[in-house]
Specification:
The protein is mostly helical. The chain contains 14 helices and 6 strands. Strands 1-2 form a two-stranded antiparallel sheet. Strands 3-6 form a two-stranded antiparallel ribbon. The protein has a two-stranded antiparallel ribbon with strand order 4-5. Strand 1 and strand 2 form a beta hairpin.
Length: about 325
């Protein structure tokens, strides 16, 4: 049975989110309105419906709302609800911070809407961005009281920083002294690549396809991701090396799986019934009747994947996990 994307239904849903009220489940995420706006605009654009199902006046109004979220100290807010306006003072300004993720989503949304970014205060934004970078090369989310960097420190915000810098490319070149420390960020990426080849959200953590996509995307935007020809001619101990790229590609390809749900193992009886022992040709050890040795693969015992399994094959985010639609995007995008 062929699968058909219900494009019109997707368009109706995203237009509902854009033009009326968000679904009730999103009520608690009002402070993340910039994020929701980006995904809505991005979806309509990918579906080829943004220009055909919205007017020029509507798209202009969306851009105006985004500019209302631009912060006076650089960057963008997540929504207009924290804008203190004339009531902003030295004592309360930390309650109205710009946010690194909101800033990336704002700039990307403006680009989707066809805005020329002329009203973006690029110099302020890049100066603010540099203040978010931490000693290990990562970035926080926002600045709090006393210029303290708040929020998570992992590859997601490294990607946001790299994307902001790339979008504001001309300003980044002009503001070389106020630019982020790219070398420090690259050292963090190197420390976050696991022995398997994928990237974790920090050193000594488990590789995951989402983190890997952010790291690969950031390195590409920074101009640090080798092309095949560059990898072949790379010499010395420079990173990423051809060996590290090979491990990365192998790990990404190995995320393909036909497992669609996590396996639930039955409880093991404390006093199992005695069973005869049989040998399975090609396995690493013998197994009991009706039970396959844990060291054997499906190929070892001659089990070929069915047509249904091949049709439903997808990507998992980590080793020994079930397929998930989002990881087809993260892993597949990284391979591209």
């Amino acid at each position: 049975m062929s699968s058909i994307l219900k494009k019109s239904a997707h368009i109706r849903y995203h237009l509902r989110c854009l033009k009326t009220f968000l679904p009730a489940a999103y009520t608690s995420n009002d402070s993340q309105r910039m994020t929701l706006a980006f995904f809505t605009l991005c979806a309509l654009d990918l579906l080829g419906a943004l220009d055909t199902h919205t007017t020029e006046a509507e798209r202009s109004a969306h851009a105006e709302w985004i500019y209302q979220c631009q912060h006076p100290d650089g960057g963008f807010r997540g929504f207009t609800g924290t804008d203190l306006g004339d009531r902003r003072t030295e004592r309360n300004h930390h309650w109205d911070p710009a946010n690194i993720a909101a800033t990336y989503f704002a700039l990307a949304s403006l680009a989707i809407l066809g805005d020329d970014l002329a009203r973006v205060e690029g110099s302020k934004c890049l100066t603010w961005l540099k203040r978010l970078q931490l000693r290990d090369g990562t970035f926080g989310e926002a600045l709090s009281l006393g210029e303290e960097v708040q929020g998570g420190r992992d590859v997601r915000f490294c990607f946001c920083a790299a994307a902001i810098r790339w979008i504001l490319g001309r300003e980044a070149e002009a503001e070389a002294e106020g630019n982020i420390d790219v070398d420090r960020m690259m050292r963090f990426f190197e420390a976050s690549q696991t022995y398997e080849g994928g990237f974790a959200n920090g050193p000594f953590h488990e590789a995951q396809a989402g983190w890997t996509s952010c790291a690969v995307g950031a390195m590409s935007l920074l101009g640090k991701l080798p092309t095949p020809s560059k990898v072949l001619h790379k010499t010395g101990n420079a990173w990423p090396s051809s060996e590290s790229i090979d491990r990365l590609l192998g790990w990404l390809v190995s995320r393909q799986t036909s497992i669609l749900q996590e396996e639930v193992r039955p409880a093991v009886s404390a006093t199992p019934e005695p069973q005869s022992v049989i040998a399975v040709e090609g396995t690493h050890a013998s197994s009991t009747e009706g039970e396959v040795d844990q060291g054997a693969t499906r190929e070892d015992i001659g089990i070929e994947p069915s047509e249904d399994e091949l049709r439903t094959a997808g990507f998992a985010g980590r080793c020994n996990k079930a397929a998930d639609t989002c990881y087809a995007f993260w892993a597949g995008g990284s391979l591209l």
